[in-house]
Each structure stands twice: as C-alpha cells, then as structure tokens.
Amino acid sequence: MTDDFASNPDNFCYRHPQRQSFVLCQRCLRTICPQCQTAMPVGVICPECLAAQQQAHVATVTRMPRRRAPGRASSALSTRPVVTYALVIVTSVFFLIGLIPGFGETVRGLLAFSAEWAYVQPWRLVTVTLVHAGIWHVALNMLALWALGRSLEPLLGRGRFLALYLLSALGGSVLTALLAPTTWVVGASGAVWGLLGAMFVIGRHLGANVTMIAVLLGLNLVLTFLPGSGIAWQAHIGGGLVGALLGLIFARTRRRDQQRRQVWLLIAVGAGLLVLLGIPLLLSH
Description:
By secondary structure, this protein is mainly alpha-helical. About 60% of the residues lie in helices and about 0% in strands.
C-alpha cells in the first residue's frame, strides 16, 4: 500500500479506518465498508444518516420491542452481489433457451456478435455475452463471473460493477470488429476478462497481493493463443484492456469531489469505443 493511499481517509471506512472500501454513503458521501452499509432506494447509506432519517420520521407511538437490531437484514442484503447473481442467472437462462430446437437457434442468431451486423443491430455489441458455444463454455464463464463478482461488486458498488461488465463486453466486441470483422463471436469472455483486468489494477492500487490474478491472466492468455483453440482473442484482449482502464479510473477517482468526474470518464470510455467502432465505416467511404 502506497503512502499516498494510506494517508487518504477517503480510501477507508470512516467508522472502521482499517477497512478499505470503494463504496460511498449516498447522503453524506463518506466511505463506508460493507458492515456499515444499509440499502435504501437511493443506494446505500451509513449508520449515522440512517439514524438521522429514522429520527426525522419518528412516530409518537409506543414502539414494540425488536427481536433484532434495526437495519441488520438490510445491511446484509446490501452486501450481496445481486448484480453478479442476476447476470449469472440471465446468461444461464438464455443458454437454456438456445437449446430449444428451432426457436433457440433463432435467438442465438439474433444475439451473437458479428461486425457486419453490429452497425444495424447494435444490441449485439453486449448481447454476445448471452450466447455460448456449449455447456463447458457457459459453465467456465459463469464460474469466473461468480468468483470475481463476489469480490468486485461489494468493493465497487452495483452500478459501477454493472458498468464495468457492460463496457468490457463492448470493448471486446469493438476490438473484434476492428481486427476480425468477418468473425462471429459468442460468449461472455470479453466481459470476464474486463473483470480480471480491473481487479488486477485496483488490487495493485490498494497494495494487495495480485500474484494469483496475474497468474490467471497469464494462463488465460496462453490458452487464448493456443493453435486450434477457436478462441476469439480479440474479444479477450479488448475486454481486458477496457477493464484495466476502468479499474484505473475507479482507483483514481475515489474522493468525494471526484464522483462526477468518474461518471463522465465512464461515459467518455463508452463514447470512445463507439467512435472506434465507426472507423471501418469511415475507411470504406
């Protein structure tokens, strides 16, 4: 852990200074760890803001004794990686739909990615994550998503994690369109590589031991380029690079006064990828 990082209180829970976190209270914008988070319609809030809100709405009636501490269930719910679980479930359901004779083939054909179709059917840029080549393909990708998401989503927050997943998938599709425009691609591997890339960069920024992540990246890179593997390496590399870039953005825009800049940087990354996607069209005219 660097001295600059350790000396910045915004990198640690204000109630538990020894705990690192990437999640802010949506009311006071102070950093809070999973134990201090309570889910609300506006996002997660800290215990002090929760107490202030409850005090403002206190009713003049005798309260019944509680069997458990207030907010305990909500706090536990807020730390669950629900976006990760949702992505795994939705992707698995679409894989099962793809097995239905006739109908499944049509659905797969509408969701898979190919550069020649992406310009008129842009949803393919991200729906490619819902289509897989076989049971082992979807099983390995969902296992990786589940393992990485359980760590990254509570660290980043649900919105940032979803943005990371989708923009990484977009990055994989864009690089495929630029380098292999006639190739049909299926799978969530580009998005999963984005999660790996982001975790590596964020881990380095936090001073964590990222040796295992580096080993996983290296092994996957070797498998990607094995002769006859049939793997679209462009999607893997594109997703990994975008994920690493987003990890850097998340790590460098941690202060409360940088949250708006973070949002605009994410928008800029998405817009930049779409501009890159338009290069082949410009060159063809």
